[in-house]
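ok trying again, last paste got cut off:
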Amino acid sequence: MCGIFGYLGKEDSYKIVKEGLERLSYRGYDSAGIISVKKSKFIERKCVGRPDRLSGSGPKSRLSIGHNRWATHGAPTILNSHPHVSNDGKIALVHNGIIENYADLKIHLQSEGFSFYSETDSELIPNLIQFYSKVLSLDEAIVAALKVIRGAYAIVFVHLDYPNKIFAARLGSPVCIGKDAKENIYISSDFGSLPSEANNVITMSDNRVASIELGGAINVTSLDGESVEAIFEKVDLEGASYSLGNFDHFLQKEIFEQSDYVRNALTGRVGKDDIKLAGISGSIGKILHATEIIYTGCGSAFLAAQIGAFAMETIARKRVRVMPAGELKYYNAVIDSGTVLVSVSQSGETADTIGCIKTFKKHGAHTIGVVNVPNSTISKMVDSGIYIRAGKEISVASTKAVINQIITMVSMAAMIGSKRDFSALTYEEFIKELKLIPNRIDRITSNAKHIEDLAKKYSNYENMLFIGRGINEMVAKEAALKVKEISYIHAEGYSAAELKHGPLALVCQNMPTIAIVQSGAIEEKMISNIREVKARGGIVVGIIEDACSDELRRILDDIIEVPSCKFESLRSVTLLIPCQLFSYYLAKERNCAIDMPRNLAKSVSVE
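nice, full thing came through this time. structure:
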């Protein structure tokens, strides 16, 4: 959350930082600001809203820092927008994170004569550095200030007394340093936002402070004062480039390109008669002998984790548990060396998930990451992991990453199952079905016009209920989340078995129910649940498999049909795709900000 970008070099720093903030706008877009250093003065540009509202031209300067804000402390206003400046006017700083003890620190600084113009916690930091600078060198003052802060931060700042230097520090929130062939320096909270020429990159570790000089000289130290070698790694940033193409929105593009990215996830991993996941090859024994496997994540990653856990238990017959990372982190779970933690995160920077990994590692658990972004914090923390290969995802609402998370975890479950109770014949059939998924996705997206027409029909409703049974309970919850996120329709996802235990009270002609139904034994139960809704005047849209019965079709008001799957865990993919399309077209019809919905941001790197 929030986007940080800084530049020190020989080019137009304001222009470069503004472009960097625009690439980072999915990380936060409540307000934006840039401060440039020129002739021993700060020149400031700020706006409420997205960074494209900032002035197109700025001062000609070699040094600028900028920030996209996702509001936590205080409303989106010019005063609350970053960069923040110290009382003496010498330090300008941008911050991503939350200072948990800011109230106490603010009282302390006020008692020392400091004043504050914003409601933010971030404004404390430049003033803390100024406070300690009274008796310490700048380097010592930075360390002293960071040691009294409790919380998470990625900070980048400049000081008027050091007009050819830029400073950065990290604890819990990501920050990386890029360098191009001309020794120009770029600093960002997301290495994917770096320009392709800045392909020498340092991803900063926690409790590190970096000072970089014009010309590229860099000094990195720990908060204990120890010097740390600054090692740049060559990174391919060409692949980070991602354009809208012929689509109206990135969300639309990301839904329609899912078949390609699922193929990408399967290539080299799913063979003719076996699944090989090299990233976790050293963890297979740990999984096989685990007393418990705990899955965790946040938001859509948590719902994907639920499907992954379902697959691990039903296919591989391993004992599993699933809990949201924000709860698991503070839950007094029984953890030992027989515990395996599977952490799911698109960005690899999700704060609550990182907190869980730290806790579980302290107790001797084995940790596995299921992430999308290489070189991310989670990918470096875990004992082993699998990249989901979903490519860059711009839209705040996750679609292709969720699908690839599911594909990856279901593949892992099948691979483990093949070493336990999954028969060779069933395993072979499963692999065949898995390879058919990309083509089935293409068949579903080719039916997008029908789904768009239905979305137009239902776009004026303000409440919706999604129901399913078995694995489709999780599909229903993810579908409801998508509708909430981007169309602002109040939507709830439930197990259809729970209808009679409360949710049925909401059913009426003004609240459509979307029933997600798979063919087979469970279809009969779903028909009964749908009849309960219809008996109370409810409208029911069915997202159903093509093998479902005529009896089901007769009682539905509208139908979206998908190809049938033999394996329940794979059905979650084919039944989720039309839900994504339905939510997209609802939002489009309601003229919502689809890629950047209100109050949300990509990559939740604070608690």
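cool. The chain has three domains: 3-240, 244-446, 447-595. The longest strand covers residues 162-171.
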